[in-house]
Automatic annotation (TrEMBL), chain A:
Naturally occurring in which organism (per UniProt): Salix viminalis
The keyword Hydrolase is assigned to this record: yes
Enzyme Commission no: 3.4.21.89
CDD domains: S26_SPase_I
Name of protein: signal peptidase I
Listed Pfam families: Peptidase_S24
Origin organism lineage: Eukaryota, Viridiplantae, Streptophyta, Embryophyta, Tracheophyta
PANTHER family the record matches: SIGNAL PEPTIDASE COMPLEX CATALYTIC SUBUNIT SEC11 (PTHR10806), SIGNAL PEPTIDASE I (PTHR10806:SF35)
Alphabetically ordered keywords of this record: Hydrolase, Membrane, Protease, Signal-anchor, Transmembrane, Transmembrane helix
Main location: membrane
Origin: domain of life: Eukaryota
UniProtKB/TrEMBL annotation, chain B:
Domain of life: Eukaryota
Name of the molecule in the record: Signal peptidase complex subunit 3
Task performed by this protein: Essential component of the signal peptidase complex (SPC) which catalyzes the cleavage of N-terminal signal sequences from nascent proteins as they are translocated into the lumen of the endoplasmic reticulum. Essential for the SPC catalytic activity, possibly by stabilizing and positioning the active center of the complex close to the lumenal surface.
Cell compartments where the protein resides: Endoplasmic reticulum membrane
Similarity annotation: Belongs to the SPCS3 family.
Protein's GO biological process: protein targeting to ER; signal peptide processing
InterPro entries, A to Z: SPC3
Pfam families reported for this sequence: SPC22
GO cellular component, one term: signal peptidase complex
The organism of origin for this protein: Salix viminalis (Common osier)
Membrane topology per record: Single-pass type II membrane protein
Length: 181, 105
């Protein structure tokens, strides 16, 4: 019993310093992640330089759970490029291939049509009501590289938040145990 | 449309598949540049990369409203190398001098 009381004493006395130390470490990790993210945004010119593939419409090239690296440039869009675009009113961006481009030299107006590799029809049904063509402004970036399966962590954490809490809880107690030494 | 191609050299240890498609490129009075994809296919492995096919177009050759009769156009074969992991790249081969018939539906 005395041994337990001793243990509790030592934990309580280190509690404040411990907690502060952990909070600062956590803060540093989050800041570093944020800095890396913002730097990527600058480098790639895209507001979302890394995306996770959520649907199977680009199979067998991209499967659900893959990560895509995006890059945005002033270069005009051409048929064959894989782009990530937003539709007004829809929260999640879509990753598909450009199959048609119609450009007007004078007015600079560009109409784009996309389609998922695995879909039998083009994306018109996904665009906003009454919209038949995509505008270049809706495109966030071109896919230039990819890593398979790496996005599953994000998908699991988004769709099953309990895993996120368990993960943070586990890291927390691992950190505490380490600091006790 | 007849296509004979040998794309085996594009397959490396890191190639997952090739996405190839044929696009027609042309000008109209309204649009200075138009690209319309007529046909595409996925080549999943090196053995399939040397092929000959004869098909009608997979996708309709329609323009944004204007007349396509007698229109001159280029056909381009594009290929997109999709890797098992890493950077993707694409290239193309342009064949020019095609012309749509003067009379059609």
């Amino acid at each position: 019993m005395g041994w337990i009381a001793e243990h509790v004493e030592s934990i309580k006395s280190m509690k404040i310093r411990d907690t502060l130390s952990q909070l600062i470490t956590l803060g540093m990790i989050v800041s570093t992640a944020l800095i890396i993210w913002k730097a990527l945004m600058c480098l790639t010119g895209s507001e979302s330089p890394v995306v996770v593939v959520l649907s199977g419409s680009m199979e067998p090239g991209f499967k659900r759970g893959d990560i895509l690296f995006l890059h945005m440039s002033e270069a005009p869009f051409r048929a064959g490029e894989i782009v990530v675009y937003n539709v007004e009113g829809k929260p999640i961006p879509i990753v598909h291939r450009v199959i048609e481009v119609h450009e007007q030299e004078n007015s600079g107006k560009v109409d784009i049509l996309t389609k998922g590799d695995a879909n039998p029809v083009d994306d018109r049904s996904l665009y906003a009501y009454g919209q038949n063509w995509l505008k270049p402004q809706q495109i966030m970036g071109r896919a230039v590289g990819f890593v398979p399966y790496a996005g599953w962590v994000t998908i699991i954490m988004t769709e099953k938040p309990i895993i996120k809490y368990m993960l943070v809880g586990a890291l927390d107690s691992a950190g505490e145990t380490y600091l006790l030494f | 449309m007849n296509i004979t191609a040998d794309l085996q050299s594009l397959f490396t240890w890191n190639t997952k598949q090739l996405f190839i498609f044929v696009a027609a490129e042309y000008e109209t009075p309204r649009n200075s540049l138009n690209q319309v994809s007529l046909w595409d296919a996925i080549i999943p492995a090196k053995e399939h990369a040397k092929f000959w096919i004869q098909t009608a177009n997979k996708y309709r050759f329609i323009d944004q409203g204007s007349n396509l009769r007698g229109k001159k156009f280029n056909l381009t074969l594009h290929w997109h190398v999709m890797p098992k992991t890493g950077r993707m790249f694409a290239d193309k081969l342009v064949m020019s001098g095609f012309r749509l018939p003067d009379e059609h539906r």
